[in-house]
Amino acid sequence: MSTATAPGPISEADTQTLDGYWRAANYLAAGQIYLSANPLLAEPLQPEHIKPRLLGHWGTTPGLNFIWAHLNRAIMAHDAEMMIVIGPGHGGPAALANTWLEGSYTDTYPSVRRDVAGMHQLFRQFSFPGGVPSHVAPQVPGSIHEGGELGYSLSHAHGAAFDNPDLIVACVVGDGEAETGPLATSWHCHRFLNPAGDGAVLPILHLNGWKIANPAVLARLPEDELDALLRGFGYEPAYVTGSHSYVPHPEMAATLDTAIGRIRAIQGEARAGRPQTGVRWPMIVMRTPKGWTGPAEVDGLPVEGTWRAHQVPLAEVRTNPQHLQQLAEWMTSYRPEELFASDGSPRPELLRHVPAGARRLGSSPHANGGVLLRDLDLPDFRDYAVLVQAPGARESEPTKVLGTMLRDVLRRNGEQRNFRVVGPDETESNRLNAVLEVTGKTWEEQTLPVDRNLAPDGRVMEILSEHTCQGWLEGYLLTGRHGWFSCYEAFIHIVDSMFNQHAKWLKVARQLPWRQPVASLNILLTSHVWRQDHNGFSHQDPGFIDHVMNKKAEVIRVYLPPDANTLLSVADHCLRSRDYVNVIVAGKQPNPDWLDMDSAILHCARGAGIWEWASSDGDGAEPDVVLGCAGDVPTLEVLAAADILRRELPELRVRVVNVVDLMRLQPDTEHPHGMSDAEFNALFTPDRPVIFAYHGYPWLVHRLTYRRDGHNNFHVRGYKEEGTTTTPFDMVMMNDMDRFHLVMDVIDRVAGIGPRAARLRQQMTDSRARARYWTREYGEDVPEVRNWTWSAR
Ligand SMILES: Cc1ncc(C[n+]2csc(CCOP(=O)(O)OP(=O)(O)O)c2C)c(N)n1
């Protein structure tokens, strides 16, 4: 990395070159929104040259083009490695125009050549059926950031910068985007950026003044208030202001030079072993008109510099000759004949400040992280196995056991620096403490003697913002690294929408041959619904799984390991996988260990299977009833119910089926992990009652199995939105998923045993009443439940 002093002010010739490039990008952006033919305006513009449907966002685009032009110059002047994250990604035409101009688009899509035919294709495909989206999307080379849902630019940018010491991520933040919750909390991200080992993020707050129809808050703050706000966030803001009549090329160039110089100075000190406290990273506040250089007025109303420029400034170009005339004037105002040769290629002098090869923003290998991805050096997960001499003979805390494995993942990959653990201040609460034996929690601010486990280069990242955790990890994964997110189950809903966007990204990226697979997004949900002993109702929500299920089967995996060894096996699998979102739900409380490691591996490979040792249908005959379970607490209750049935109704043939991979329940036509009907019938039978205890909302199991022959016989127990601060067993009783209720369900559904089991049924009702009474009287679960162990071994 060069540490040369900042170059001097740019020359008039440089200003002209940058301006030409900018005009070319603006021309190409307007062309994408409007033209389906006549790209170079070689003939007078006619209505038939105009797209039938005008779709796109002009307002933010010229500002983005201006930034891109100047980043190019800065990359060359400073020999810098940069990436761009575009918060207002609805300005897709900008990213497409710039990548086409610099050649990275054609490198990625050779059919879109840098000539008039290619320009025609570039224009035509934009926001056109069968073409490319109007937002910055996976299809856009150089991007890791979907431009649809606003708010994630800064967290993505920081995720990209972690452990990339030579990278500077320029991050454009829209002033509207800045009003979102996720973005608002992201101003803290730089507090977790280590100047010694990480790269840098250069936020460029784009104050173009407006959102869709309203002013943007930050654009209307008095200047001193905005300055105080940004300084309060720990930044050193620099201001660049343009207007209808002034294009601030010299100011932008100088400001970028200063910012990069400052970044390198901060990093230089830290890397020389002189870390500073209270580091102020630079940022740029760029105030330019919305729809800059577009029509000033349309139909007598102001457009440039107002909210009216947000999307398509001239809406009736095909039908209104006045609009058509204005479009022609607007596009020719860029003087295309000066910008493009007659064959449509950009004139070489325009590209004087455009970097070459992988230094182009559209060609950054970081933005196609799969090409940089290295496998994790994983320990043998079997080394962390808990000893299981007999099912249920001992207990362990599954996430605590997992923590020992994650600790060694961190240790073994410490040198490659490509694995991080993120979470909203819950790593210890979620009992993954062992990771802190080998690394600290990232912290760049002051410390107090009472603090524990904080370190400037810690690899465990905690901030009380699920949005930021998710954004960091997405940015980290999409730039070719690996990670692990652990979160309370109920609060993962905070990132429902971010998960959506990431899943959409993966779905599209998988269809693009040039995008290499990236490491999966691994989400461990713990402190789950059934064991919120001291937090209660607010913390009880297993619905993330339902949400996840809506996304494309090819990218979604959901695992419910019932004990510690199955959790280890699942975690190993997830850490090796690519291009998925893996959701793992596992408890942190002491839980019986059911399977030894060999059995756990086999069970996880099957995804769902009969637990012979817990079943009493081993005589070759069909079972009378199947007890299904998915999740650690449901498994415990099912086994306890099987235990009661075995003792009280020994002639009843009971089969216990545990499901660890929830997707196995789906038909094989719906999900790659799905079972064929034959497999499903073999496991659950086509006609016997199935009492299924499920970790989450019961309707999901119905949704997954509704096409199966035996679906009418499925009776699912799960969380019915009944909860409070109470004992573990009272929780399952409140939702009728307790062992006693499951036995009652069996009695009620197995034909012919009703009369024989009448007494047992009554006993179960009494047991529930006694258990309820006990909690109210003594504040804990009744001893027969608390001390229950699997006895049928
Ligand atoms: C989370 C979210 N809410 C709402 C929208 C709808 N939306 C699209 S663009 C926009 C205004 C964006 O303003 P700004 O970030 O300032 O971008 P610019 O003005 O540069 O277009 C809104 C509200 C969205 N895309 N994402």
The pLDDT mean sits at 95
Q: Biggest sheet: strands side by side, in what order? A: 12-9-13-14-16-15
Helix and strand composition category:
alpha/beta
The 3D shape can be described as elongated
Distance between the termini: 65 Å
Q: List all distinct small molecules, including ions and cofactors, that are bound in this structure.
A: thiamine diphosphate
Figure out the total of helices: 25
Poorly predicted ranges: 1-6
Beta-sheet strand percentage?
5-15%
Biggest sheet overview: 6 strands, parallel
Total strand segments: 22
Rounded radius of gyration (Å)? 30 Å
Helical fraction: 25-40%
What report would you give on this structure?
Helix 13 runs parallel beside helix 17. The protein is α/β, with parallel strands linked by helices and 793 residues long. The protein is built from 25 helices and 22 strands. Residues 1-6 have low confidence and may be disordered. It starts with 11 loop residues before the first helix and ends in a 7-residue tail after the last helix.
Question: What attributes does this structure have?
Answer:
793 residues; alpha/beta; 6-stranded parallel beta sheet; 5-stranded parallel beta sheet; 22 strands; elongated; disordered N terminus; binds thiamine diphosphate
Helix and strand arrangement:
Blueprint: H1 12-34, H2 61-78, E1 81-86, H3 92-102, H4 104-108, H5 116-125, H6 153-161, E2 167-174, H7 181-186, E3 200-207, H8 217-220, H9 223-232, E4 235-241, H10 249-271, E5 281-287, E6 297-298, E7 301-302, H11 321-332, H12 336-339, E8 395-396, H13 398-412, E9 419-423, E10 441-442, E11 454-455, E12 460-462, H14 466-478, E13 482-488, H15 496-510, E14 521-526, H16 544-548, E15 556-559, H17 564-576, E16 581-585, E17 591-592, H18 597-606, E18 608-610, E19 625-630, H19 632-648, E20 654-659, H20 677-684, E21 690-694, H21 699-705, E22 714-717, H22 728-734, H23 739-749, H24 758-778, H25 783-786
Parallel strand pairs: 1-2, 2-3, 3-5, 4-5, 9-12, 9-13, 10-11, 13-14, 14-16, 15-16, 19-20, 19-21, 21-22
Antiparallel strand pairs: 6-7, 8-17, 18-20
Helix pairs in contact: 1-2, 1-3, 1-5, 2-3, 2-10, 6-14, 13-17, 17-18, 19-23, 23-24
The structure holds thiamine diphosphate.
Thiamine diphosphate (TPP) is lined by residues 57, 59-60, 88, 90, 148-151, 174-177, 180, 206, 208, 210-212, 216, 290, 310.
